Amino acid sequence: MLNKSIKKENLENPVDIRNTDGSGWLYSDIVKDHFFNPRNFMQYGEEEKFKFNGLGRVGSPACGDEMVLWILVDEKSEKIIDCRWRTFGCGSAIASTSVLSEMIIENDGMKLEEALKIKPQDILERLGGLPARKVHCSVLGDKALQEAINDYFRQTGQHNRIITAGKKVIDKVLNITDNDIEEAVLEGARTLEDLQKKLKVGVGDPEAIPQIEELLKFYFEKYYEV
């Protein structure tokens, strides 16, 4: 069911996408617009030119939707002044990321404290709603933004501001979680040295190293061993 606060005109010309069983999903004009005309999309090869100081990656193309979000934060104002994204997934996932990118940089940029308050419901409302089976796409957008902001905090040495709710903290000095280690493995880390080069995990908290090595082995076997 769509949020009651969604304006009726957003669904004036819904797009009917049929399943193989004949049932249909209704997509608003807004979803269609963001799918066919995505805003702030990161073109391949553009990564080297785009200046950013926060990167969030959630999901995995091996098992479903994946979203990657690059943000540029002005350190003085703590506003997100630019962003790019790339999504591997369905039309709903693409539209959700597109509209999220629009939300966080409009009106000269959103402050980090406000961006962290964005909920999946806010993305859904901006889109004019999504079919019930596609609501998880807006959740991925919410998580990608939080990961990008956490990365900004980590890159600027603000480890006390990293959001760790719902995750297990492995390195208590740098607030590095099991999710951070999992993402590092998905991005190519294969050894403890790889992890420390990327995250500095265990450098200031050497007692965590045995657990870090266990997680490294677990995630490598989970994703790469047949």
TrEMBL record:
InterPro entries: NIF_FeS_clus_asmbl_NifU_N. One of its GO terms (biological process) is iron-sulfur cluster assembly. Residues 27-156 form the NIF system FeS cluster assembly NifU N-terminal domain. One of its GO terms (molecular function) is iron ion binding. This is Nitrogen-fixing NifU domain protein. It comes from Candidatus Magasanikbacteria bacterium GW2011_GWC2_37_14. The lineage of its organism: Bacteria, Candidatus Magasanikiibacteriota.
